[in-house]
C-alpha cells in the first residue's frame, strides 16, 4: 500500500506530462504548459518534500520513567516469564508512562527485516488499579505483538502516514491532484487499521494463553472503567488547580487515593456491559467483540492472582513521584500537598466567580474598586434587583434580587477565605466541603438568603461578624477577564475587524482576534496550526481578547458572509466582516458564532 502511494504519484506525473503533449497539439505550447504545469509542480513538489521528511522521521519514544531490573525486579521477572510463554525475547527497556494504556515499540532496520531495540510501555494507572492476573494478561497481550512480529513494520507504517499526510497538506483543497491522493490515503488507512484490528485479536490469544479466559476478559472490562476514572480524576481534581497556577506534589498518588475511596462507584461501572459497535476506521475491535472471541478460545489453567498489581513494584509511591518529575513540566506553578492544593484550587474558582460579579458591579456603578461592601450598599438602597437583572434576564427585578442569593454565597465564600475564617476541605469520596476554623460546615447559604433583602441585611452582617468574616475582605482580584480554562468553540479565517484582516477564534468566554493572519487561501490550515501551537489561554494572551462579559450588544446585519456590529459596555464599537474567501476550522464554525452574537442582540 505504501509503494502504491508512490505509484499513484508517478501515474499523476505521467498524466500531467501526457496532458501537456496533448494540449500542445491543439493549443500553443506556452498555453499547454501553463495549464499542466501547476499539476506537475503540485505532484512532484508535494511528494518529494513529504517523502524526504518521512524518510528522515523517526517515531519518538513516549515520555516516561525507565525502570531497570534493579529498580523493579519483580516486574522484570514477570516480563521474563511471560516472554518465555508467548515465545519472544524480552524487551530491552520497560518504561512507566502516565496513561491508562500499555504498548510496545521496536526500532527495526531494513524495513523490518532486522529486529531492533524493544520498549515495553506500562501505564502507571494500570499498576495502581489492576490485579496481578489482570496486568499479566495486559503484558502478555503486548508481548504477543512481538511474537506475532506486529512491531516489525511499525516504523514503516509511521513513515507512510507521515508521507501521505505531508503530501496532502501541501496540495490545496481545490487542486484535483489532491483529490486522488486523499482518496488513496483513505484506502491506505482502511487497510492499515484492518491489519491493526486483526493483530489485536491475535495478541489477545497470548493473554488467554498466559492468564486464562477469565483474567483476560476482566482485564479488557477494566480498561474503560479505569479510563473513565482517570478522566474524572483530571477533570475534577487536577485541571482546575493546574489552570489556577497550582500543581499537586503527588499526582499519581492522588489517583491511587481516588480509586480506593470510590470503589463502590467503580464496581457499579464494572457491572455495565461494554459498548459494542465499532467502525472500519478503528484500530482496535470493540471490547465486547474481543471478549466474545476470548470466551470461545481454549482456556488455560492459569492460576488467578487477586493481589494488587502494585506489588510488582517495590515502592510504587516513590516511582510515581519520580514519574511526575519526568513527565510534568510545572513551570512557575506552585506545588502543594493535596489538602492545600484542593483548598487553593476551589478558592481560586470561587474567586473567579466573585470577580465576574465585581466587574459587573464596577460597570453598573462606576466604582473603580468594586467589592462586597458595594454590593451590600446596593441591597440596603433597594437597587440589588436592578443590578441583578443582567444575571437573570427572564426575571422581574424583585425575582432577580431573590435569585441573587446564589452568587451572593460565592461572594461571601471569597470574603470568608480572604478573612481566614474558612477553607475548602479536601475529600476523595465527595466534593470539597466549605468548613470554618472548627472543621464544621459553614452555613453561608442561609446568610446569603438574608443578605439579599434590605430588611434582613443587618442580621446577615451581624452573623458574618460573629463567625469572623469581614465583608471588606471581599474584593475584586482579577480586574479584567482572561481566557484561563476557556474552550475553543469555533474558528474562522479571513475576517475583517474594523476593516483590518484577522483570523477569529471563538471561545466559551470571548473572542480572540489574531492580526496579520497570512495568505487568504490557506485559512483552514493556518487555523489548525494556530490552535495546535499553544494552549487556548496562551493564544488569547498573545492576541487581542474580548471577553463576552464586556460585550453589551451585537447586531448581525448579514449572516453569509457574516457582517455584524459589536458594542461594548465602555462604548467602543467593532465591525466584523467575513470575506467571501473565508475558511472555517469546522463546518459549523459560522453557525456557532452567529448563535453567540444573536444572544446579545438581533439580526437585521
Please provide a written account of the structure.
With 604 residues, this protein is an alpha+beta fold. 54% of the residues lie in helices and 15% in strands. Helix 1 crosses helix 7, helix 5 (132-147) packs antiparallel against helix 7 (176-243) and helix 7 crosses helix 10. The radius of gyration is 30 Å and the shape is flat. Keywords: Cell membrane, Hydrolase, Membrane, Metal-binding, Metalloprotease, Protease, Transmembrane, Transmembrane helix, Zinc.
Describe the structure concisely.
The chain is an alpha+beta fold. It contains 21 helices and 15 strands.
Class derived from helix and strand content:
alpha+beta
What would you call the shape? flat
Discrete helix count: 21
**What does the radius of gyration come to?**
30 Å
Report the sheet with the most strands, covering strand number, pairing sense and barrel closure: 7 strands, antiparallel
Query: Mean pLDDT, nearest integer?
Result: 87
**Roughly what fraction of the amino acids lie in strands?**
15-25%
Strand order in the sheet with the most strands:
12-11-10-9-15-14-13
Tell me the number of strands.
15
**How far is the first residue's CA from the last residue's CA?**
54 Å
The low-pLDDT segments are none
Q: Helicity level, as a percent range?
A: 40-55%
